[in-house]
Amino acid sequence: MTTIGIAAVAAAFGRDLDACLERIAVILDHARSGGADLVVLPDAALGGYLTDFRGPDSASLPPALEVGNPWLRKVAGLAGPTVVCVGYCESDGERRYNSAVCLNGDGVLGTHRKVHQPPGEQSFYTAGDRFDAFDTPVGRIGMLIDYDKTFPEAARAAALGGAQILACLSAWPTSITNRAPRMVDDRQSRLFDLYDRSRAAENQLVLVSSNQTGSSGGLRFLGQAKVVGPGGDVLARTWSKAGIALAQVDVAEEIAAARRTLRHLEERRPETYRP
């Protein structure tokens, strides 16, 4: 049996890249002191997320960083042997993508560009077009960003690619149209947890859900980072405040136990799945 430490992070990140890097360094130190081998940081941990879906001016957008930018190299240097997933605004020519990269001290292990965009985001970001799984020292990983996890097909595509661990990086806010007085009662709070547990159980894999905390302009983020087992059980979690959800997991054994009798990926009948 090979047990690894898996950390899901809830924390606030803004526009100041130096401050983001300092916070990442502190988080990685705390996570490793608890035995973390994999740390999943939130979406937009380098440079922050949008402040408003209704039309922020270009000056308020997150800094756009090219692939291989010095900030990601600095994160890789901080990571060392630890596998780290981190989100940022990626610049590719005139296009911006809401992107995530998985890396360690040896370099980039995998990347993902957010495919599914909530209303308003498409005004600022170009959509990605694929879901990949890739090998890392802690196992085969797939990544989703924010709204991606609302769609069962997204997680299923990564699972069919062999992902054992699904890293879901978010900057997920409370309801924009009908915010509840208490965050725990907010509709988006309930859905965020529901999607995390459902995507893990549907695909019988380990899901690691990170999220931003605090506020950015008119957006108030949920937190609620967690590690979810292949049966949909929450192994570790934070609540609305910043923190690290850390669980020691034998990923291969947990998946084997979940799939011992029912094997969802093998028992699909895709020829019947049509309108």
TrEMBL record:
The keyword Transmembrane does not apply. Keywords: Hydrolase. Coiled coil: none annotated. Pfam families: CN_hydrolase (PF00795). The keyword Signal does not apply. InterPro entries: Aliph_Amidase/BUP (IPR050345), C-N_Hydrolase (IPR003010), C-N_Hydrolase_sf (IPR036526). Residues 4-251 form the CN hydrolase domain. Signal peptide: none annotated. GO terms for molecular function: hydrolase activity. It comes from the Bacteria. This is Carbon-nitrogen hydrolase family protein. It comes from Sporichthya brevicatena.
